[in-house]
Amino acid sequence: MIDRLAIAGYRSLRKVTIALGRITVVTGANGSGKSSLYRSLRLLSEAAQARLIASVAAEGGLVSTLWAGPEKFSRGMKDGSTPVQGLRRSEPVALKLGFSSDTLGYAIDLGLPGPSAASSFPHDPEIKVEALWNGHTLSPRDLIAERRGPGVQVRRQDTGEWRRVSTTIAPFDSMMTQCADPVDGLELLMLREQMRGWRFYDDLRTDRHAPARRPQVGTFTPVLSADGGDLGSALQTILAIGDRAGLAEAVADAFDGATIDVNETFEVEMRQHGLLRPLRAAELSEGTLRYLLLAAALLSPRPPELMVLNEPEASLHPDLIPPLARLLAHAAKASQIMIVSHAEALVETLIEERDATHILLEKQLGETIVADADPVDWTWPKR
Description:
Helix content is 26%, strand content 25%. By secondary structure, the protein is α+β, with helices and mostly antiparallel strands.
């Protein structure tokens, strides 16, 4: 389980390290940095997919994603006696992302190309440093693999000796995707597959043109797609090989004993007391459809190590919040769950009844801080 997440230099997250739990709920006012925290974790996962640089470009490039304030705040800036202004930089421009658990930690440092770097894409960031280590905190004795510029070296776990595995890695490639193999880079291979398994849901479509409302050609689907377009197939897969009883319980809990089925064209059908025929997905309300999408994601027969949900309560009636909390708690038995939420009822239920970790974000001078949080140890790899 991931228990520490660290971000530095990303949008309003100048320097944030947070402790995560089995269920973590992130809250805060509009503009406090919740979406940035969500996107930073998703951006971190892109390193294992060989999409990190493209994802940064899609956000407007490195310059657009970097922290826009001063490197440090003076005492006068904090108390308002002096204006906020740029000070002399003591460190290079950087966007840093990392996480750790009981077993492994990983960090990556992105920066601007050097002045002598000849490139047809001068605005692309470069991966300056990567590090993989044993345990929570980076230290020289626990280091397993490191990348500095184009060079990557890994430590043999049996002898402790270092072996250089690359001297020509491209500045846009991660060592996870280029140097992971069962012989010299087994730990990198394990890390890559772990991060590739993370799932993010923030765009489950429920509008009247949503793919989930239409008939489809069914196929074995143990993992719901990011937009939920294969809902019928995902639910049928759960009914066939997954937690059939858990799905039935989640639907009955939310909709007063209702049941669901999937017809021959893989349309979802819901049967409710008092109705003479089932309602097809095209007839369901946005809230009802969204709950079914969340159930399909959370009850996946192939649960991920980490699942991150951005505002899952959107479109849900308040009566559906308690069933959703129970569904999240059920899913947390198999996966670590992070939720970014505005719903006070959902947050309170998860914290009070499910012992969820609460991360409250606030803004001070444009910087996101974690309110009332104890310090979390973290060490970044040096360039």
